[in-house]
């Protein structure tokens, strides 16, 4: 039974790694597919199909293992971002560019969420998301994370320093400000509403 649980967990992780490596290797063929998107699609497919074929012990073990690996990787990435911020202090900083990019991120997220939602409401009249829920989605979507910083590191241009410092500033600002206030906003927007867990109890 223990061997089966280990094998199930290994297969879940191996499938995700295989999807990432295959997408990354397509650069050789000139396709340049995204490994991040491959991981996302693989995770969605496994959640819908592979997860339900695991044993109860396999579900628990794989969930705990993958959660541990995910939090470890997140801690490592944000530690790297902190170290990178320290080492990029002597490089070129453009505060006007940082402010401009911050406004673009905020306005782009607002237009992207509200605009797309109400545009599709023109064709589908059924209301599925309230305005307050949409506002919460918009606020949470403001957070720029490690993926944005990782993509910036791959840019090869003469102004790479200012792009990296701007990206680091956005990641730190949005993570600290929007990330730390998202729980306060949740309590404010959904005041008096019980969660599913509270309703079950």
How would you describe this protein?
The protein is mainly α and 201 residues long. Helices cover 76% and strands 0% of the residues. It has helices at residues 2-25, 35-50, 56-87, 95-121, 131-140, 146-153, 160-189, 196-200. Helix 6 (146-153) runs antiparallel to helix 7 (160-189). The chain is globular, with a radius of gyration of 21 Å.
The shape is globular
Low-confidence stretches: 195-201
Main structural class: mainly alpha
Strand content: under 5%
Alpha carbon gyration radius: 21 Å
**What do the pLDDT scores average to?**
83
Helix share bin: over 70%
Q: Helical element count?
A: 8
What's the β-strand tally?
0
**Helix-strand pattern:** HHHHHHHH
Distance between the termini: 34 Å
Main sheet overview: none
Write the layout of secondary structure elements.
Layout: H1 2-25, H2 35-50, H3 56-87, H4 95-121, H5 131-140, H6 146-153, H7 160-189, H8 196-200
Helix pairs in contact: 1-2, 1-3, 4-5, 4-7, 5-7, 6-7
Summed up, what is this model?
The protein has 201 residues and is mainly α.
Keywords:
single chain, 201 residues, mainly alpha, 8 helices, 76% helix, 0% strand
